[in-house]
Amino acid sequence: MDEPLLLHHRDDRGVVTLTLNRPQAFNALSEAMLAALAEAFDKLQDDDTVRAVVLAAAGTAFCAGHDLKEMRAEPSLDYYRSLFAQCTDMMLAIQRLPAPVIARVHGLATAAGCQLVAMCDLAVASTDARFAVSGINVGLFCSTPGVALSRNVPRKAAFEMLVTGEFVSAAEALALGLVNRVAAPDELDDAIEALVARIVAKPGVAVAMGKALFYRQLEVGIEAAYQDAGATMAANMMDPCALEGVRAFIDKRPPSWSSQH
């Protein structure tokens, strides 16, 4: 009963692992869990020593979505509006983080749990993972998960998942672009580490600038996207890490980046 809802671990590279810790409830996103995630992301937001965040889960499932028992206990329009606003703020905080966020997915990722995977910048799934936006099965179209899902997978595939509530396998999720990699359960952590190692080897300032631009440009027209991207690249180019990286390329040697990059 005294176990925290969200476990925190940080290694000496600045890689933070947040682990959803409601295994008995398949890590459902209760109001308290949403608050714990939001608080964690808020603390990481201004910490430029964080190089990557891994979002994992305890027990047999990644996340079963919203806590339906809790939702049903107070059926009022104001309550539901507040709840979904709280969830939206938490989801958007993932994109606001300067460091890439990687979902470590095993077991079920359903409804808002599938949304959580879609909102992460990257995702690595176990071969036993299954994904669904299954609210329609109880008469509730997964509208908010659909926002994230439709920005990850092709439209017709997203709509089919939303309107049927059917599961897709890890292999299908990989083919659709919902996840980046799939690994056997006993190789999942190695697959995560391989991705993390490639990220932390790069200059953190370039990754942070690039992540922010990546999401901004997706939501505007192509001309505005190019204007923003050009301004971002110019600013990036003036960073010492980029100047050193280009010089190293010209000199045909490895770049010499400080430990603070």
Query: What is the number of helical segments per DSSP (H or I, 4+ residues)?
Result: 11
Would you tell me the structural class of the helices and strands? alpha/beta
User: Percent of residues in helical segments?
Assistant: 40-55%
Quaternary structure of the protein: single chain
Question: What characteristic shape results from the CA principal axes?
Answer: globular
Proportion of residues in β-strands: 5-15%
Radius of gyration: 19 Å
Total strand segments: 9
Q: What is the CATH architecture descriptor of the largest domain?
A: Alpha-Beta Complex
* Terminal CA distance: 41 Å
Strand order of the largest sheet: 1-2-3-4-6-9
Largest sheet: 6 strands, mixed
